[in-house]
Amino acid sequence: MGVSEKALVLKGITKRFPLVLANDHIDLDLNWGEVLALVGENGAGKSTLMKIVYGLQPPDEGEMWVDGRPYRPRSPLDAIRAGIGMVHQHFMLVEPFTVLENLVLGLEPGSPFRMDLDQARREASALMEALGFHVPLDEKVEDLPVGLQQRVEILKALYRKARILILDEPTAVLTPQEAEELFRFLRAYVEKGNAAIFISHKLKEVLEVSDRTTVIRDGKVVGTVQTPRTSLEELARMMVGREVVLRVEKGPARPGEVVLEVENLAAPPRLKGVSFRVRAGEIVGVAGVEGNGQTELVEALTGLRPHTGRVLYLGEPLPPTARKVRERGVSHIPEDRNQRGLVLDFTTRENAILGDHHRPPFRGFLDFLQPEAVEAHAQTLVERFDVRPRSTALAARRYSGGNAQKIVVGREILRRPRLLVAAQPTRGVDIGAIEAIHKELIRARDEGLAVLLVSADLSEVLSLSDRILVMYEGRIMGELTPEEATEERLGLLMAGISPETRR
Ligand SMILES: Nc1ncnc2c1ncn2[C@@H]1O[C@H](COP(=O)(O)OP(=O)(O)OP(=O)(O)O)[C@@H](O)[C@H]1O
Ligand SMILES: [Mg+2]
């Protein structure tokens, strides 16, 4: 087939970085009227390829066509002119600005010095009407929950008249309900004759929303399949190059002493009062729709947020600062790795000891940093947690999203804490690496670690936890064993309906 009837055609796209060949002669085509899923392991080259299409970086080799015409973008402005919009893996909105200001930013109608906000408001309102979704135009982006921020990103692309929409892991931060809404929008969008590329590690979503799926591995296209004719297992195998165990294998927990005891813990704005215990050698999962107090709970327990109520850690009150909490052996995998988990300009070596750099074995006699100890530690981390590329000298911002997450998880587990507070530990991580991280968590549990696992991914909570607490509106609605936790029971508790209220 020629290139003329296609939305987008890529031929031989190649991109080299100092340590990796990120894209290796990639051929890909996108038809009008379809959602094409793009899947592959962390670091396979998905975001790199899409940044090339969006004009954020030039390819070293290769050619592109949009709607049959040769296409060589020198900046995103060229991409926008060609009708391409992109929603990034990490949002690119200007947070202190309002939604409306973000929409017109860099594209003001009329004079470049006076933004015509009134006209923009009229256009945006009409667009939202047509799309059937709403975003408050006058609120600041930083005040919006992530689900709405993402709608702003989509609205921004459509406001610029995108006919080809690229979504790089758009659902990583969405609740299942928000993801469903996004899928309805995407289907309607392509049925009008547009086209979309959808990147996700959630293969169930890929199966649900896409027409075709292209798999890439190590920068090369492995193959393209008609999505309805494939399966989760087949996609996983194509991605990883081996069979993937989709179920977590673990023996029964052997809980020991109480490590964490929480009584009536409350923290504004959303944590209203919770009580529970976590023992050594067990994983306690917290399930619930995001925004029901989980963030406050995690931050209170790690010393990052003021709270009331009683928290005993190893029988003593929790120290007053995050640094002291950490020093006493509490590890924290934060929900937002870029904000809290990593210093993006630091190398893996530096990030691997972040928060522990002032202590032995890294800081030695006369306060000198011990380079050999630091390097050995970083080596262990990248090998055991399969951080790719294996270098310890690469700055955090040069890693793919999932590999950056592996650095955080590895650092927090390897420091041998007594308590691990893990929020969304596998967000953005590929299916093979999830398997590896789950194994590490079970291994740490079996060595006596107490784990509090907060995850928006129900299947993750179900497969890892020894006990499950369900949160709703800042309180614990119920506690279940994994055996008791059917989807229905969990769903009801997550919606705030307890067995008593039903009776
Ligand atoms: N600016 C850069 N400098 C050096 N290496 C880079 C740069 N950007 C990306 N890379 C490397 O290119 C490879 C591909 O990265 P990319 O972000 O495209 O992966 P990805 O498929 O999107 O992965 P993920 O699923 O984890 O998001 C990785 O090995 C990454 O470290
Ligand atoms: Mg990526």
TrEMBL record:
It is found in: Cell membrane. The keyword Magnesium does not apply. Coiled coil: none annotated. Keywords: ATP-binding, Cell membrane, Membrane, Nucleotide-binding, Repeat, Translocase, Transport. The keyword Repeat applies. It comes from the Bacteria. GO terms for cellular component: plasma membrane. InterPro entries: AAA+_ATPase (IPR003593), ABC_carbohydrate_import_ATPase (IPR050107), ABC_transporter-like_ATP-bd (IPR003439), ABC_transporter-like_CS (IPR017871), P-loop_NTPase (IPR027417). Pfam families: ABC_tran. Residues 8-243, 253-498 form the ABC transporter domain. It is a peripheral membrane protein. PROSITE patterns: ABC_TRANSPORTER_1, ABC_TRANSPORTER_2. One of its GO terms (molecular function) is ATP hydrolysis activity. PANTHER family: CARBOHYDRATE TRANSPORT ATP-BINDING PROTEIN MG119-RELATED, GUANOSINE IMPORT ATP-BINDING PROTEIN NUPO. This is Heme ABC transporter ATP-binding protein. It comes from Thermus filiformis.
